[in-house]
Amino acid sequence: MDRDQPIGVFDSGVGGLSVLRALRAELPHEDFVYFSDAGHAPYGERGDAFVTERSLAIVVDLLAQHRIKGLVIACNTATAAAVHRVRETATDLPVVGVEPALKPAAALTKTGHVAVLATRGTLASSKFKALHDALRGRAEFVLQPCDGLAAAIEADDQARIRALVRRYTTEVCCFGTAPGEIDTLVLGCTHYPFASEYFREVLGPEIQLVETGEPVARQTRRLLEAQGLINPAGAGAVHWETTGEPQALRAAASRWLGL
After folding, report:
1. Would the annotation count 191 as a binding residue?
2. Does residue 213 have a known ligand-binding role?
3. 27, 32, 68, 171: which is deepest, by most CB within 10 A?
4. Coil, strand or helix: which one is 174?
5. DSSP 3-state assignment of 176?
6. Catalytic positions (predicted)?
7. In terms of pTM, does the model score above 0.85?
8. Is 39 annotated as belonging to a binding site?
9. Distance (Å, rounded) from C-alpha 103 to C-alpha 135?
10. Is residue 11 marked as binding?
11. Annotation-wise, does 84 bind a ligand?
């Protein structure tokens, strides 16, 4: 691998753009290939076997077509279902997955109560269970599956996004900074940061919102540095691939990344 090769980033749709945004801020001279598997979304409501099959197919494509030097699985569901298989398949490739930021949230909370919003697939995974079990005693976690929210964000349906944010935050109960209340919210799907304005609208400024983009970007830098693969003088270009509608991906990249 050469340092001027691009980094591959993939997600079931546009949610991974929240991770790409953090990666571009951390690694401004790196080139990226972003693969949106929107034609097979949403992953969060699919089985592990399907998600693993798609993940491996995407990795093979990114290696063959773009000769990527590193991979970021910018999807919580795909990470939970398939990161181990991806690492077994592409043994020389630095691979970074994402997971709901329970550990940072446990460190941030003052009340000791944290809500985790994620897809049903993520919350049901053995990888998430192991993470959750490892943090028992560090905080009290309330887990809330959010059926339909990633799909609403994917479709840019603002009215539905707002309605689902209100529904799921109401179901969690009770947010606040008093003892026994939830003062920290983990956005456990890479789509959810794009609904942050609605979470703020409902919860106010005192509730801490925790996402995964920045830690993932820092870990990506560490892995590339360890292998001497940092590009110090690249153009910072992004190449786009999708199994869905190209115009939808272009619109999302324009709206959320200014690209």
Report:
1. yes
2. no
3. 68
4. coil
5. coil
6. 75, 189
7. yes
8. no
9. 7
10. yes
11. no
What does the chain come to in residues?
A: 259
- Residue range 48-70: mean pLDDT, rounded: 96
CA distances from 115 to 87, 150, 168, 193, 251 (A): 30, 17, 11, 15, 31
For the segment 24-46, what is each residue's pLDDT rounded down to a tens digit?
999 999 999 999 999 998 887 78
How far lies 130's CA from each of 99, 177, 229, 259, in Å?
11, 28, 32, 37
Whether residue 76 is annotated as binding a ligand: the answer is yes
Whether 122 shows a pLDDT value over 90: the answer reads no
Q: Which domains does the chain have, with CATH numbers?
A: 7-98+213-257 (3.40.50.1860), 102-210 (3.40.50.1860)
Tell me which of 146, 173, 174, 189 is the catalytic residue.
189
Q: Which string of b and e fits 88-123 if b means at least 16 CB within 10 Å?
A: eebeebbbbbbbbbbbbbbeebebbbbbbbbbebbb
Residue 240 burial (CB < 10 Å; 0-12/13-18/19+)?
middle
Residues 72 and 34: their CA atoms lie apart, in Å, by: 10
Q: Residue 190 and residue 20: Cα distance in Å, rounded?
A: 10
Distance of alpha carbon 199 from alpha carbon 193, whole angstroms: 9
Q: What are phi and psi of 157, to 5 degrees?
A: -90, 90
Helix H or strand E segment including 117: strand 113-118
Nearest partner of 189 among 145, 157, 131, judged by Cα: 145
Name which of 42-51, 129-138, 237-246, 250-259 the model is least confident about: 42-51
